[in-house]
Design goal:
The protein is of the alpha+beta class. It has 4 domains: 192 residues, Penicillin Amidohydrolase, domain 1; 223 residues, 4-Layer Sandwich (Glutamine Phosphoribosylpyrophosphate, subunit 1, domain 1); 60 residues, Penicillin G acylase, beta-roll domain (Roll), CATH 2.30.120; 129 residues, Penicillin amidase (Acylase) alpha subunit, N-terminal domain. The protein has an 11-stranded mixed beta sheet, with helices on one face. A hairpin with a 7-residue loop joins strand 12 and strand 13. Helix 2 crosses helix 6, helix 11 runs antiparallel to helix 12 and helix 15 packs parallel to helix 18. The radius of gyration is 27 Å and the shape is globular. The N and C termini lie far apart (64 Å). 51% of the residues are buried. About 1% of the residues have low confidence.
């Protein structure tokens, strides 16, 4: 028996040794794959010296002997902090997520391939100017130098796969990635088809209302070119989906500024994630310093400033995608078969069909059940237009010297269509749209695009301000139709708060960016207070809201009461009319509800499935009762003790968020106020009581043109995507409270600020 004991002990010892070895390897890998921030590295592909100086917040200030060295170093920095993020983005566009993530992503890959994203990225690369090609080549060399220099990011260890080298076309995929993310039309047409399947035309027009008459336009009629026709054709508009990507931007002239120089604010609203979509960098180029938000995978500062001015973007909302139905016998169809490789499963054969106007959306991969089952559903889109030169536009915008140069640079922009705001050190403020905006004939067919020089644009408007909150850009006084989907509540509030002060400064702009007052709540609440709840809890909630000021403060209980009521109220009003289609419409529809409770559409409150005629107070009361019962089950009976910032937070999810234990540690969550109607936007799903904000200000910037080094910057949760980096989540709390960091250009790498760390990159001997 002794030999049995000895064998067992030996096996236990061996297991412990192997476990210790595995833990040791894991610890080594995690540390070795973390971003290197100090010392010197000799790298192939580098022709001169470069320096990456990371300041106390992890912001990369990049210097080099020449521009190629700067872009090489930016690629190295991006790959050090964000390569897994870059890899997922390129794989999404190329339809290759399943190769590393398995069968759950086959549908995602199929949709990307069917919509033509891989070919569109190849077209982007093919249209690059020689200078862009050289820059991307240098950037790509920097990315690959990092991959060769250190172990892969820890996500690859969990997936048991190895990263592939970066290619120039992969940077082109990021152009398509952003265009797809921000283009309008696909979701709107899907939504309309689903609603139309259940509603008659009159009810459909009510449920999907147009832009309200009282909503502001970004350009005022007096700012439209005087040579324009006195009135254009009516533009079909809709209210944008509550959770669609959006942004805020506003600029005021020196007359409205305490410094006497323009002020520009911008906060693009995108899905929150760990890591952030943005990576702050300062590029010390031969044409001067450029500072701002880069997107890992590309070598450009997309939002930011140079020494001459600053720029900020928001979505136009213009409709640049159409889903059209065609008789299969009436249109040419080209077919091909592609193979999707799937980790842990058999390959999937994919049939891709394309017509002269766009791809056919295969019902095996797209939910087109609301369309005619005998027709082909075809996507027509500017996202995949083969003439895309947005990369050239980004580079020229980085170099722009003044307003005229900025406008000329944006001429190359294709997609996504953007509202572009400018503020110059010479005092000029301006606004231009950029991108391809289709013109349509009476039959809906595309007949061309609005000429670039005739797109909505203004410099130094009479009112001294230009504000955009994804609201309608122009009225029907503009001579071209601009169909699209728009938001109204944020723009209304922004204009009000700008007009409330004679002059503004960075502090007032910060307060405006963080404003949590809901014009929607203040407008609709007096009508909702007529509700007739039947439970004691419902009556208590109503009394709380009678005293509420409409501010969705994270420290208060009323925002939770109101938000819960809102989520219950919508389906209570429209689910009976929509029937099976109601499952597609679970987000708050604030303009619609406003018109039901304060306008002429109160007939929607009647439940058409009953013989009685229900009133709006009855329906609102029942919804409030149901909402309060659900929240008491989640948060307890002490309604006065509820806290909005505890029931919800800003949630920055990691791609592995669903993995037990690991996902929770990799994701970041911070208390946050506001909702989808506030300037400090924070969209929530509301499903099953989940009020976490998953879509909010992905970054904020406030540019003071009297001293651009005083620009205020922030994004979250941090600069690095590596969990061992001190900059993985260090900006999240600062972002949530409206704080900022400074990124100055008045120092060199030889004399960096205190707390900085310098990594020297040198050519191999």
């Amino acid at each position: 028996m002794k030999w049995v004991v000895r064998i067992v002990l030996a096996l236990i010892a061996l297991a412990l040794v192997l476990a210790a070895g595995a833990m040791g390897f894991l610890a080594w890998h995690l540390n070795a794959s973390a971003p290197r921030t100090e010392g010197e590295i000799n790298l192939p592909g580098l022709s001169g010296e470069a320096r990456i100086v990371r300041d106390e917040h992890g912001v990369a200030h990049i210097f080099g002997d020449g521009d190629d060295e700067v872009f090489f170093a930016l690629g190295f920095a991006h790959a050090s902090d964000r390569f897994f993020q870059m890899d997922l983005a390129r794989r999404y566009i190329r339809g290759r997520l399943s190769e590393i993530l398995g069968p759950d992503f086959v549908a995602v890959d199929a949709r990307s391939r069917i919509r033509g994203f891989p070919g569109a990225a190849a077209n982007v690369e093919a249209t690059w100017s020689p200078e862009i090609a050289r820059i991307v080549t240098a950037y790509t060399a920097g990315v690959n130098a990092r991959l060769d220099d250190a172990p892969a990011p820890p996500e690859y260890l969990l997936l048991q796969v190895s990263p592939e080298p970066w290619e120039p076309v992969d940077s082109a995929t990021l152009v398509i990635y952003l265009a797809d993310m921000l283009a309008s039309g696909f979701g709107e047409d899907m939504e309309r088809a689903r609603a139309a399947a259940a509603l008659d035309p009159e009810r459909l027009a009510e449920f999907l209302p147009g832009y309200p008459d009282w909503g502001p336009t970004t350009l005022k009629d007096e700012d439209i070119a005087p040579e324009a026709a006195p009135g254009g054709p009516p533009s079909p508009t809709t209210i944008r989906a509550e959770d669609a990507p959006g942004s805020n931007a506003w600029v005021v002239s020196g007359e409205r500024s305490a410094t006497g120089a323009p002020l520009l604010a911008n906060d693009p609203h995108l899905s929150l994630g760990t890591p952030s979509i943005w990576y702050f960098a300062r590029l010390d180029l031969s044409t001067g310093p450029v500072i701002g938000g880069t997107v890992p995978g590309t070598p450009f500062v997309l939002l930011g400033r140079n020494a001459n001015g600053a720029w900020g973007y928001t979505n136009t909302g213009f409709k640049v995608i159409d889903l059209v139905e065609r008789d299969p016998a009436s249109i040419d169809i080209a077919e091909r078969t592609e193979t999707i490789l799937v980790k842990g499963a058999d390959p999937v054969e994919l049939n891709v069909r394309r017509t002269p106007i766009g791809p056919v959306l295969d019902p095996d991969w797209f939910d087109v059940s609301a369309f005619d089952p005998d027709a082909l559903v075809i996507e027509r889109s500017t996202v995949t237009d083969p003439r895309n030169r947005s990369a050239d536009a980004a580079l020229e915008i980085m170099r722009s010297q003044d307003w005229d140069g900025f406008v000329e640079a944006a001429r190359y922009w294709t997609a996504p269509m953007q509202n572009m705001h400018w503020a110059g050190v010479d005092g000029t403020i301006g606004y231009t749209t950029a991108g391809l905006l289709p013109l349509r004939g009476e039959d809906g067919e595309w007949t061309g695009y609005i000429p670039y020089d005739e797109l909505p644009r203004v410099a130094n408007p009479r009112g001294g301000m230009i504000a955009s909150g994804n609201n309608r850009v122009v009225s029907d006084a503009y001579p071209y139709p601009v169909p699209g989907s728009y938001e109204v509540w944020r723009a209304t509030r922004i204009e009000t708060l700008i007009e409330d002060r004679a002059t503004h400064d960075a502090d007032s702009f910060t307060a405006l960016q963080m404003d949590e007052a809901s014009d929607f709540a203040r407008r609709v609440l007096p009508a909702l207070l007529a509700a007739e709840p039947e439970t004691e809890e419902g009556r208590r909630a109503l009394e709380m809201l009678r005293r509420w000021n409409g501010v969705l403060d994270a420290a208060r209980p009323e925002p939770l009461v109101f938000s819960s009521w809102l989520m219950a109220l919508g389906p209570a009003v429209w689910a009976d009319e929509l029937g099976e289609s109601a499952r597609y419409f679970r987000q708050p529809r604030r303009i619609f509800l406003d018109q039901v409770f304060t306008g002429e559409m109160g007939h929607w409150c009647d439940d058409v499935t009953t013989e009685t005629v229900e009133t709006c107070p009855q329906i609102a009361g029942r919804a409030l009762d149901a909402a309060m019962a659900a929240e008491i089950g989640r948060h307890g009976p002490d309604m006065a003790g509820w806290v909005w910032g505890e029931a919800r937070a800003a949630r920055f999810s990691h791609p592995f968020a669903s993995v037990p234990v690991i996902g929770e540690r990799l994701s970041v969550r911070v208390p946050f106020g506001g909702d989808g109607s506030t300037v400090s936007v924070a969209h929530f799903s509301g499903y099953n009581g989940d009020y976490d904000a998953v879509h909010a200000a992905s970054m904020r910037a406030i540019y003071d043109l009297s001293d651009l080094n005083e620009t205020r910057w922030i994004h979250a949760p941090g600069q690095s995507g590596h969990p061992l980096s001190p900059h993985y989540r260090d900006l999240a709390a600062r972002w949530a409270r409206g704080g900022h960091v400074m990124i100055r250009d008045d120092w060199t790498w030889e004399n960096p600020p205190q707390g900085s760390r310098t990594l020297a990159l040198s050519p191999q001997p």
